[in-house]
Design the sequence.
């Protein structure tokens, strides 16, 4: 076994995979602890040491995977994602790059690349983006039309909510999420009692219809992703069944050939 094959055996072992997951979780916890002044005052040196040790481990792990897989390593988008996330931590956190120090927490996102179930969810969401884009465009159109109507109808009644188009867009986005929409509606209805028709209709179209379309598209994409992953397993099972039947037929043919020979004796 060559050195590359031995390294590949190590990096693909379940135990090594579990260690990587553990280091990612530990590093995410320490980065969260660094945001607490009290913990930094008492354990700042230890937290920084753990962070540097985790970064060193990630560098060694990525180097081992690159050595094990060669150019094929860069053919996997998830491997490129790992390289970018870890590489951010190597940029000097001083001067104009000081903001990149806060991006160290992105290393926690490596859990997505190392946990298969998370990868399936992200892959399904990415495959659903074209359908979601159409729904988002529809939602933006509805929101714009409703904002123009609300500004025209209610700008004098509730200028803090519908004073101009920008205020109306923000207010209606808040109403769409269900956050304190009744307060906005009651203030307008105090002057125009029939304004409930506008708010109820807007919420019914956006919250109960269009937003649920996002969920439907995401669920459909998830089902398709699971189906694509289960199909190869089903195909392998079918091949194994077919091979079993072929072996059984060969055994029967062998018995038929041996029976006349035994009878002739």
Sequence:
């Amino acid at each position: 076994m060559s050195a590359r094959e031995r390294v590949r055996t190590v990096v693909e072992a379940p135990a090594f995979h579990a260690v990587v997951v553990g280091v990612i979780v530990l590093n995410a916890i320490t980065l969260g602890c660094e945001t607490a002044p009290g913990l930094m005052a008492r354990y700042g040196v230890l937290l920084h040491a753990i962070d540097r040790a985790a970064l060193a481990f990630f560098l060694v792990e990525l180097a081992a995977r690159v050595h094990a897989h060669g150019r094929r390593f860069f053919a996997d988008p998830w491997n490129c994602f790992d390289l970018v996330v870890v590489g951010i931590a190597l940029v000097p956190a001083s001067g104009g790059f000081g903001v990149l120090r806060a991006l160290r927490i992105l290393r926690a996102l490596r859990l997505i690349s190392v946990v298969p179930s998370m990868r399936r969810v992200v892959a399904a969401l990415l495959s659903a983006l074209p359908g979601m884009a159409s729904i988002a465009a529809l939602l933006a159109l509805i929101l714009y039309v409703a904002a123009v109507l609300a500004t025209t109808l209610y700008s004098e009644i509730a200028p803090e909510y519908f004073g101009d188009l920008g205020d109306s867009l923000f207010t209606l986005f808040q109403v769409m999420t269900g956050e304190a929409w009744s307060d906005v509606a009651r203030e307008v209805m105090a002057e125009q009692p029939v304004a409930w028709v506008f708010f109820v209709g807007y919420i019914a179209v956006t919250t109960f219809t269009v937003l649920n379309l996002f969920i439907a598209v995401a669920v459909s994409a998830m089902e398709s992703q699971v189906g694509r992953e289960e199909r190869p397993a089903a195909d392998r099972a079918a091949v194994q069944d077919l091979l079993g039947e072929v072996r059984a037929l060969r055994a029967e043919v062998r018995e038929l050939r041996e029976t006349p020979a035994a009878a002739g004796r």
About this structure: The domain at 3-114 is CATH 1.20.120.350 (Four Helix Bundle (Hemerythrin (Met), subunit A)). The chain is about 80% helix and 0% strand. Residues 127 and 171 are 31 Å apart (CA to CA).
